[in-house]
Write a structure and sequence with these properties.
The protein is of the alpha/beta class. The chain is 46% helix and 13% strand. The two termini are 23 Å apart.
C-alpha cells in the first residue's frame, strides 16, 4: 500500500484514505467482496473522494461492478502506471509506446462502458448496417494498434542502425538499471554532468538518455539511463517498451542501482532480477551499486 500511495502521488492524486483487505480467495465479481465494497463506498463518500484505486489488476467485470457500486471512477494498478507514463512521455517514441500499452489494456475492457456502446447504427464508409457501436470501436482500436506497432517497428530499426554504428566505432555501452526511484538519474548526472531531470517521484525518467562517459584508459563509453522497474510491471508495458529496453541487450555492462535506504530493497532487487531474466539480460556482466548510503 505504501508503494501504491507513492504511485498515486506521482500521478498527482491526494490520498483521502486507504483500505486493506485480507482474503484467501479474491471475489470474482468485485475482487474484495460485498461487505468490503460497502465499507469502501462509505469511506470514499465520507472523505469526499472522486476516485478509488486498487493495487491489483481488475477484470472488465470487476471494473464495471465496482464503478456501479461506488458511483465513482475506479482505477487499477496497471491503469495508474499507464497514466503516470502518459504524463512523463516526452519523445515521440515514448508517446507511441504508452499509447500502444493503453489501447492493448483498453481493448478487452470496452464492454464495461454501459448502454452507450451497444446502440445499432450504420454509415457509408464507416461501418456496415447493423454493426454495433462496440464492434466499431473495437475495430478502430485494432486498426490504431496496427499503425502504432508499425511506427514502433520503424523506431526499432532506427535504433538498430544506431547500435550498429556504435559497434563499428567500438563504443562500449553501460546501462543503468534498477527499481524506480533508486537514484539512477542522480548517478547518471554525477558521472556525465548531463543535467537530466531528477525527482523523488516514481518513474521520473521515462525516455532513455545516452551520454559519453570518459574512462581513465582514455577510451570513451556510452552511459544509458533507462526507465525504472517496478513489481508487477504491467505486461503491456514490458511488451510496448521492448524498443527502449533493447538498449539493455546491447550493453557491455549493467550498473544495478539499489536504494540501500529502502526498507524493502531486497524485494525490489528481486523484482529487478526477474525483469532482467524476462528480457534475457540477467547473465550480462554487472556492478551492483548501493545508492543513497547517506540516508542509512
Amino acid at each position: 500500500l505504501l508503494e501504491l500511495r507513492d504511485l498515486a502521488l506521482s500521478a498527482g492524486a491526494r490520498i483521502a484514505g486507504t483500505v486493506l483487505q485480507r482474503t484467501p480467495q479474491p471475489d470474482p465479481a468485485t475482487l474484495v467482496g460485498r461487505g468490503k465494497v460497502e465499507e469502501i463506498r462509505a469511506s470514499a463518500r465520507a472523505a469526499g473522494a472522486g476516485l478509488v484505486i486498487f493495487d491489483h489488476d481488475l477484470t472488465p467485470t470487476q471494473l464495471r461492478n465496482l464503478e456501479n457500486a461506488f458511483d465513482l471512477k475506479v482505477l487499477d494498478r496497471t491503469q495508474l502506471i499507464l497514466d503516470i507514463f502518459a504524463r512523463r512521455a516526452r519523445t515521440r517514441e515514448g508517446q507511441l509506446q504508452v499509447e500502444l500499452a493503453q489501447l492493448n489494456y483498453l481493448l478487452p475492457r470496452l464492454g464495461g462502458r454501459g448502454t452507450l456502446l451497444s446502440r445499432l447504427g450504420g454509415g457509408i464508409g464507416t461501418r456496415g448496417p447493423g454493426e454495433q457501436q462496440l464492434e466499431f470501436d473495437r475495430r478502430r482500436i485494432r486498426a490504431r494498434i496496427r499503425r502504432l506497432k508499425e511506427a514502433i517497428e520503424h523506431v526499432r530499426s532506427q535504433r538498430a542502425l544506431h547500435r550498429a554504428r556504435r559497434r563499428d566505432q567500438n563504443f562500449l555501452t553501460v546501462a543503468l538499471v534498477g527499481y524506480t526511484n533508486a537514484g539512477k538519474s542522480t548517478l547518471f548526472n554525477a558521472l556525465t554532468q548531463a543535467g537530466v531531470m531528477t525527482s523523488s517521484r516514481l518513474f521520473a525518467t521515462l525516455d532513455p538518455t545516452v551520454r559519453t562517459l570518459p574512462l581513465q584508459s582514455r577510451r570513451a563509453a556510452l552511459l544509458s539511463d533507462t526507465v525504472g522497474f517496478i513489481r508487477k510491471l504491467p505486461p503491456h508495458l514490458v511488451a510496448a517498451f521492448r524498443a527502449t529496453l533493447e538498449e539493455l541487450q546491447e550493453a557491455s555492462l549493467l550498473l544495478h542501482i539499489t536504494d540501500a535506504s529502502h526498507p524493502d530493497h531486497a524485494a525490489q532487487d528481486e523484482a529487478v532480477e526477474s525483469l532482467l531474466e524476462t528480457l534475457n539480460v540477467a547473465a550480462k556482466p554487472r556492478i551492483h551499486v548501493w545508492n543513497k548510503i547517506d540516508l542509512l
